[in-house]
Amino acid sequence: YRLYLVGRYHLSRLTDDGFRRALEYFQKATEIDPNNALAHSGLADAYIDLCSFNALPPSESYPKARQAAIRALQLDDQLAEAHVSLASAKFFHDWDWKGAEEEYKRAIQLNPGYPAAHQMYSYYLAAMGRFDEALREMHQAGDLDPASPGKVVGVGEVLYFARRYDEAIVAFKKTLE
Length: 177
Prior knowledge:
- The structure is a single chain.
- The chain is mostly helical.
- The protein has helices at residues 2-12, 16-32, 37-52, 58-75, 80-94, 97-110, 115-127, 131-144, 149-161, 165-176.
- It contains 10 helices and no strands.
- The termini are far apart.
């Protein structure tokens, strides 16, 4: 579990090095305990983030991410983190809009206090052009994790995607503060 937590810390750094180090910690955690659903979900997230930040090609990262997310759900189908991991693979790689939304909603149903579920669902909603819903979800993520720069900057990103540029600028300046 400690290896999992250190992996999550490295993911939160939002750097290529952080993602690679997170991957190492999650791999170690799954080697020590192959039945650790959280570690498998973390592994999926590390692969997704490596691709999202252009450190690995989608053809390499998403099959591994999907496999790890599915394994996590096989171990614990009530784990919100794993549903978010699978939803992100469906959303960003498979373009399975319906499947992604179902997984994000399931994650929020299972754990309404999980900030990443709200954040990632917000990005999905923004991509679908549902900006008011996206802003509500991103604000929820920020309320749940106010110290996370990723959650705070997300409000600005959704406003930018909605072409509400003046509001986006204000939100981005708040992030810098």
